[in-house]
Amino acid sequence: MPDNKRLKNIADAFDVSRQDIGRIIRDFHSEMRKGLSRRKSSLKMLPAYVKKPKGTERGEFLALDLGGTNFRVLALRLKGKRRISVLGSKKFILKKKHITGTGKTLFDFIAGCIKTFMDEYKIDTGQKHNIGFTFSFPMKKRRISSGILLRWTKGFKAGAVEGKDVVELLNESLERKGLHNTKVVAIANDTVSTLVAKSYEDKTCDVGVILGTGTNACYPEKQMIINIEWGNFNKIRLTPYDRTLNHLSQNPGEQILEKMISGMYLGVLTRLVARDLIREAIPEAFKAEHMSIVEADTSKNLSHTDKLLKKFRIRDSKYSDRKLLKKICAIISTRAARLSALAIASVVTKIDPRLSGKHTIAVDGSVYEKYTGFSRRIKATLKEIFGNKKAANIRLSLTKDASAKGAAIIAAAVGARSF
Ligand code: BGC
């Protein structure tokens, strides 16, 4: 089959058509309803035991942010007038041994990082300190201060943590490090923290979305915020490439939407498709960030792509192959952006079926922030779904680094204490 015919077939397989749009939104709503009423559903709809903040919360807190290979510790001051200041912040890198070893290794490491941070910022460990913990994985909660890990995602597999309360695990590790007065008092998913942080300063914010290594969203229901865990949505048509990826993944059958949208998987999909079209194999190190460079390449002969491929030891790529690679990246990222828009549209219309009010969506994550044209494609798809006028009621607001701030605000709901 000629290349252009094969490319056309692939583009068709990854297309999200107008018909798909209506069906996916209907299925999304139906899965949301089932999840809320505790029936079997790919959307877990996990109660967060957190409400939207008032903006008057005050105090000083330690905040932790764990969700990818970076782990951050921060000291934050909430000023009570919708303003927060960062008193200190430090990033630590998790190594493979922390992510794939035992839970004890992981949480002892984290507690060690907290100790290092407190020493560095001369925070008196003899005093009482409350920690707000953003933990970006699916958790079952019964109160604000507990979170039972349902399952790891995004390549994490530290042993003996699934089914356990991660707050208890971390508090035990803090004790072991001699931090007897430093305790986790509140835990939240990153979407929840992002929504809370944004709505601390902007009352109209009612959805928190992450489009990064993983993907997910939350919104307020009547009683409290619900963590949708939309990455696990599975009422979507899979291409043969999705099936292969799913089969090769750490969690086959789970996180189907995440495997089509998020940064952890976009590069893998591109490589799988490229294998069928391009002579040279694209190496494993080729990730979403590289796809973005290829898509942004408007140089004659796609010389930036050539330079990039050379870094991956593909020394004499043909122009026709570079062109194909650019098209493959566009096909895969366009589907990802369109599906992201559909998921956002589903959540907003769950809150406001006629889209009659204004909605601010706090969005964070590397794919949304950095991938060439990703946010533009989401916005274009929202216009396609709702028409220009109604779509203008949805404002996507890039909310960077909000998840740690949100953790501190949530901790404030439990009790304040100065350093
Ligand atoms: C996790 C979610 C998280 C999302 C974004 C997913 O893999 O299941 O809990 O919110 O990644 O970090």
Please tag this protein with its features:
5-stranded mixed beta sheet, 13 strands, alpha/beta, Hexokinase, domain 1, Nucleotidyltransferase, domain 5, globular, 6-stranded mixed beta sheet, binds beta-D-glucopyranose, 18% strand, single chain, 419 residues
Walk me through what this model shows.
It is a single chain. The chain contains 15 helices and 13 strands. The chain is an alpha/beta fold and 419 residues long. It folds into two domains: 3-43 and 206-398, Hexokinase, domain 1 (3-Layer(aba) Sandwich), CATH 3.40.367.20; 58-188, Nucleotidyltransferase, domain 5 (2-Layer Sandwich). Strands 1-11-10-9-12-13 form a six-stranded mixed beta sheet, sandwiched between helices. A hairpin with a 3-residue loop joins strand 2 (58-66) and strand 3. Helix 9 crosses helix 10 (288-296). The longest helix is centred in the C-terminal third of the chain and has 33 residues, at 319-351. It is globular, with a radius of gyration of 22 Å. The structure holds beta-D-glucopyranose. Residues 67, 136-138, 153-154, 189-191, 210, 212, 214-216, 229, 231, 258 line the site of beta-D-glucopyranose. Residues 67, 136-138, 153-154, 189-191, 210, 212, 214-216, 229, 231, 258 line the site of beta-D-glucopyranose (BGC).
